Amino acid sequence: MDFEKLILGIDVGTSSVKVSLLDSRTVKSVYAKSVLTKAKINNPSHEKGDEQDVIKIFKSTQECLELVPRHFMKEVKAIGVCGQMHGIVFWDERFIRHFWSGEFSIETKKIVSNLYTWQDARADKQFLAKLPRPHSHLKAHSGYGCNTIFWLQEYQPEILSNYNRCGTIQDLIVSAFCNLKTPVMSTQNAASWGYFDTTDCSWNIDLLQSAHFPVNLLPSVVQPGTNAGSLYNTIYDIAKGTVVDVALGDLQCSVMATLTSVKDAAVINISTSAQVAFVTNYIGQQHDGVEYFPYFDNSYLVVAASLNGGNVLDCFVKSVLGWVSDIGLIINEDELWNRLMNLSSDEEATSLVVNPIIFGERHNPTVFGSFVNITNSNMTLKELFSGFCKGLVQNLLKMMPREMLLEAGIQRIIGSGSVIPKNHIIKKEIENSFNLPLYVENTEDSAFGAALSAFKTNNFLFI
Ligand SMILES: Nc1ncnc2c1ncn2[C@@H]1O[C@H](COP(=O)(O)OP(=O)(O)O)[C@@H](O)[C@H]1O
Ligand SMILES: O=C(CO)[C@@H](O)[C@H](O)[C@H](O)[C@H](O)COP(=O)(O)O
Questions:
Q1: Fold of the domain spanning 6-251+445-462
Q2: pTM reported for the whole predicted model
Q3: Which residue owns the Cα nearest ligand 1 atom 24?
């Protein structure tokens, strides 16, 4: 089939990079692909840290783009990028030159830091208590860019002195594509760093300055849908000069992708993390675990963002692999996933209750998971796995109760992210416990959402 005007969407997730190509005539996806990044750093600079290798993320992004058939790439007229929010990466402006020279050498490693992700827990309660209170309706938690800067400034100042730019990983990718000397950031990603006032769209400069925060590092902020620049040179047959929008949050893009026509739906997204979200026009009452993040066109997303999603199941799988190896047996990870996913579906019968909050939650960072009701007959692999799956959904329900959804006029749920389509236990538990009809979308939603946003904001290119 011939396609004339396509939009490329890229989502730089915590576990994988995904691309999606949107056809401007049908506003449908014509191609999607994902590649695991395997970027986790096993010995981060702090025991509670969570860091990723930025070069590996770039290489996986390149690998994913390389896989897209070139006849599609030739038709790309605009690019939208989104990715994991809250995290921060530092770089020296020379990094962008290395990107365009096509070589990531040992030297490159010295001019870009690791990505300090949203899962980074080094800024503990005591440390956070010493920081100024943000002038914003949003609190700032550990793993948020500004708090990571505060922490590094106090304990590892050499990190800050090595670099002169910073942004989220998706901001760095956009900077590289457009050869930007200084990064730009959307309100969506700025708000995810903390110390950003969404009502007047500005960093809390005075407050940060009085706390000796290096405000000169902060990127300038623009509205979602603004062009960040244009592609500096032709890559993968995408033409030089193709417009590139400022990077967005993956959460906002997953909602954008799924709520194009329906207004009465909430989105449950489960990938590495998990969220329940719906759109609103105003900032309402804040509850523990429910926050209001900037969406598009001055509206907000009401979000219950859990730190416990697919990462918990990943941990469960890794534990089982460890037990198996401890008793001298071998099974590979993919095969184990396969078996767990295909365990029989009569799992409702179990009396075992798992509270799988193994990573804590932002509103309760020191409370972790538990098992309840262990008997002499329910310690089977099947019941443990299904207990973890169901517990994840129960945790989301606790953070965003059904009543809250009904009060907001929500009548259905759209399931997005790669975990829900693959996991029948989670799917069923969402239907049973939220007790609303569930529609499951495809897995590259956020990449599609990023493309959709770029399509809307550059629509003059597609007339
Ligand atoms: N082989 C597998 N089968 C089923 N699920 C998997 C498998 N490998 C990973 N997962 C799940 O997918 C999650 C990551 O989903 P992904 O969409 O790649 O995340 P992200 O958007 O955060 O990059 C993991 O945390 C894990 O729960
Ligand atoms: O933490 C929040 C919002 O506060 C998440 O919704 C946000 O989307 C972050 O980007 C995720 O935690 C990372 O997304 P993913 O890689 O798990 O898809």
A1: Nucleotidyltransferase; domain 5 (3.30.420)
A2: 0.94
A3: 310
Position 44 pLDDT exceeds 90: yes
Atom of ligand 1 nearest to the CA of 12: 23
CA atoms within 13 A on the CB side of 4: 5
Ligand 1: distance of its center to the CA of 36 in Å? 9
Atom of ligand 2 nearest to the CA of 275: 6
Q: How far apart are CA 222 and CA 201, in angstroms?
A: 8
Of all protein residues, the one whose alpha carbon is nearest to atom 26 of ligand 1 is: 310
Among protein residues, the one with the nearest Cα to ligand 2's atom 14 is 84
Q: Residue type at 392?
A: L
ipTM summary value: 0.97
Alpha-carbon distance of 135 to 274, in angstroms, equals 27
80: phi then psi, degrees, rounded to nearest 5: -120, 135
Which residues, judged by CB distance below 6 Å to any ligand atom, belong to the binding site of ligand 1? 13-16, 271-272, 310-311, 313-314, 334, 337, 341, 417-419, 422
pLDDT tens for each residue of 171-221: 999 999 999 999 999 999 999 999 999 999 999 999 999 999 999 999 999
Q: What is the DSSP string of 391-457?
A: HHHHHHHHHS-HHHHHHTT--EEEEESSHHHH-HHHHHHHHHHH-S-EEE--TTHHHHHHHHHHHHH
Q: Which of 273, 276, 446 to mutate to test the pocket of ligand 2 (most atoms within 8 A of CB)?
A: 273
